[in-house]
Write a structure and sequence with these properties.
Number of domains: 1
Helix content: over 70%
Distance between the termini: 21 Å
Order of helices and strands: HHHHHHH
Structural class: mainly alpha
Largest sheet: none
Radius of gyration: 17 Å
Number of helices: 7
Length: 250
Amino acid sequence: MGTILSLVSAAIGVFCAVLGLWSLTGAQASRRVVPFSGGLLVGISLFGVLPDLAERYSWAGGPALLAVGVALLWLVGRYVYPVCPSCSHTHQHELCSAALHGFATPLVVAATLHSFLDGLGIAASQQRSADALGTTVVLAVILHKIPEGVALGVMLRAALPTRASALLWCALAESATFLGGLLESIVAPGLGARWVSYYVLALAGGSFLYLGFHAVHGEWRRRGRPAFAPALTGAAGAAALQQGLSFLLR
């Protein structure tokens, strides 16, 4: 099931990238959705993943595992390249239509890693017994694919000479979502699905927290306080969705 959902998420990412490729105005829509989806990711991490980890590893071990996920993404974002094209506080949406020469390779590498972690998170959330967390993680990743895909399409169109080449690289980057889900589904049974799923979920939760924070922080730097309203709405929505699904699945 996790592999199928990862494939669906990858397809949505490619579709949104196509929208970005054929419409430079897509950056405007992305800018409105980014803080909401960022708040949603933060909410999933804090209200969904963290309590689940704390229940298994205590309130000392759970946050520590989540912090490891954040630290790994921070190291990549700080010393390699910003992991999320629509979340980075260094990315200016207003410049998406500029000719971004030499930008394509590091952008594709970063987007591929981001998508791979999305797939790992989706598959790990499905390895456990069916509960609200699995559903909420899938919804959060899929929603975040919308601004991510649009931004990726817009930026690669500006960085590459043709739409065809930009589309190819978008598809390759987003396909890593499926590969992440497939790898987790293959490895988990051999090493113990429950053990693997918790550690992968910690990595995914840390990445959600990191990416969500940067989505909100980036929009705050560009727009100021108006960015906080959709971000808080997303976080509150994540908490409400988590609690609502938990109640329905009891």
